[in-house]
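Re: beginner question about structure tokens

> Can someone show what the tokenized structure looks like for a real chain? I only ever see the sequence side.

Sure, here's an example I had lying around. Input first:
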Amino acid sequence: MNIAAERIDRLHDLARAAAADGEDERAKHYVRLARRVAERNRLSLPRTFKRFTCDACDAYLRPGVNARVRLQDGHVVITCDCGHHARYPYE
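And the corresponding structure tokens:
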């Protein structure tokens, strides 16, 4: 694992902790930083990071707090407070 991937993992942990403490703006800042590090180093973001962040507003999603989670026809639909939907398949 290279330095950039370690930094992304650390920023993910920091974003999760900030969101749990109710510091949403700080969590958004960490998400933006992690995306920028991945972009500059041509890395893909980990699956857990992609699933718990909103692509539209960069919020760290916490189901029941700032995100709604529903199951529809073999898909998980996550709706952020900003109105953006993300769909992921499941079996």
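Each token stands for a local structural state, so reading them left to right follows the chain. The first helix runs from residue 3 to 20.
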